[in-house]
Amino acid sequence: MTTEVRVPTLGESVTEATVATWFKKPGDSVAVDEMLCELETDKVTVEVPSPAAGTLAEIVAGEGETVGVDALLATLSEGGEATAAPAKAEAPKAEASAAPAASGGGESVDVMVPTLGESVTEATVSTWFKKVGDTVAQDEMLCELETDKVSVEVPAPTAGVLSEILADEGSTVEAGGKLGVIGGSAGAAAAAPAQETAPAPAAQPASTGGKDVEHAPSAQKAMAEAGLSPDQVQGSGRDGRIMKEDVAKAVAAASSAPAPAAAPAAPRGPVSADDAAREERVKMTRLRQTIARRLKDAQNTAAILTTYNEVDMTEVMALRSQYKDQFEKKHGVRLGFMSFFTKACCHALKEVPEVNAEIDGTDIVYKNFVHMGVAAGTPQGLVVPVIRDADSMSFAEIEKAIAEKGRRARDGKLSMAEMQGGTFTISNGGVYGSLMSSPILNPPQSGILGMHKIQDRPMVIDGEIKIRPMMYLALSYDHRIVDGKGAVTFLVRVKEALEDPRRLLMDL
Question: What is the pTM of this model?
Answer without folding.
Answer: 0.50
